[in-house]
Amino acid sequence: MHLRTHLKPLAWILACAAASLGALPLSAAADTFDVKVGFAAPLTGANAGYGKDLQNGVQLALDEANAKKIQIGGKTANFVIQAEDDQADPRIGVQAAQKLVDGGVAVVVGHFNSGTTIPASQVYQTAGIPVIDPAATNPTITQRGFDNVFTVISSDAQNAGTAGTYAVTVTKAKKISIIDDRTAFGQGEADEFEKAVKAAGGTIVARQYSDNQTVDFSAQLTALKGIGTDLIFFGGLDRQAAAVAKRMKQLGITAQFVGGGGVMDTDFLKLAGDAADGAMAWEYGSPLEKLPQGKAFAEKFQKHFGVAILSYAPFGYDAAWAAINAMQKSNSIDPKVYRPVLKTISFPGITGTIAFDNNGALKNASSTMYQVKGGAWVPIVTKSGT
């Protein structure tokens, strides 16, 4: 075969190189394989800050895992993220979930909103792909008997429930009111707060509603001012919570403001201004700075991304490592093989010990109440529970 006489010089060189490679042992690249880690959260819109914060937490875990050159099945795993924007919309969330399934992901970390997580998790359950929830907190998420659903964060039964009990037994509020944004998250935590207040012997004197696009809470707050409420719990996220606190001050309402999850962050402080002073909020988990690895993680995150943690990045990081550890321990990225290991895994995460109960919920979850003092959020008390 007169190969050389029929090829131009460059083609001849390439042909020889290819032939030589065929005679060599497998390259380092051939000993590495990609593991797709799905991620879904709002990456545009009002909740995009939360979504990007979560994504950075997941990406940091994957970068660290890749630096360790983790071996699975005798090869080095290269963890790559496939991120989808669910826009905090349940319908789009389901579409994002299906894209991740169709993309061949081995696991999913997501979503952020409960209203998106609940329907999307049905897609993962049907596909047999584990989803590890780093931020959505409606108790329904882990109460449907799905064996592919896990969560590394407290539920609202624990967080908002603790808030309700505290409002009655410690704050000693006598006339408690609630406003919620009618989302699965906001309404869900408001429901849990109300149940806990009543169980502790407290009184709910009024419950007002908005939606998650409301910017002016004058109507709701004027109604509450008229009945002399002494504590207002808001079920919703930081931007609207800040609008409530600001309008309370403008209307001369002296009731104690209490927020649930997703309120204790710098955006609330910026938007509420001086109306933030004295505000309380219950947040999932223990204060990062008081956890063994918390300070180091915050510094590492800042160095890696050039921004500070907004809120839930540590939970995204822990969720990703839960999957990585289970895959490494089971020596497989096949959900059928690593899922049983994931169910029984226990390791020290950034946010605390990561271990799951029979429903996939986080064991020994905790919540912390913060209060704004001198323009900053200060942790006041941490309560643990199941």
TrEMBL record:
Gene3D superfamilies per UniProt: 3.40.50.2300
Annotated SUPFAM superfamilies: Periplasmic binding protein-like I
Record-linked Pfam families: Peripla_BP_6 (PF13458)
Coiled coil feature spans: none
Family matches, as InterPro entries: Leu-bd (IPR028081), Leu_Ile_Val-bd (IPR000709), Peripla_BP_I (IPR028082)
Keyword Signal: yes
CDD domains hit by this protein: PBP1_ABC_LIVBP-like
Signal peptide start and end residues: 1-28
Domain Leucine-binding protein as annotated: residue spans: 35-375
Gene Ontology BP annotations: amino acid transport
Keywords attached to this entry: Amino-acid transport, Signal, Transport
PANTHER family: AMINO ACID BINDING PROTEIN (PTHR47151:SF2), LEU/ILE/VAL-BINDING ABC TRANSPORTER SUBUNIT (PTHR47151)
Family (UniProt): Belongs to the leucine-binding protein family.
Listed name of the protein: Leucine-, isoleucine-, valine-, threonine-, and alanine-binding protein
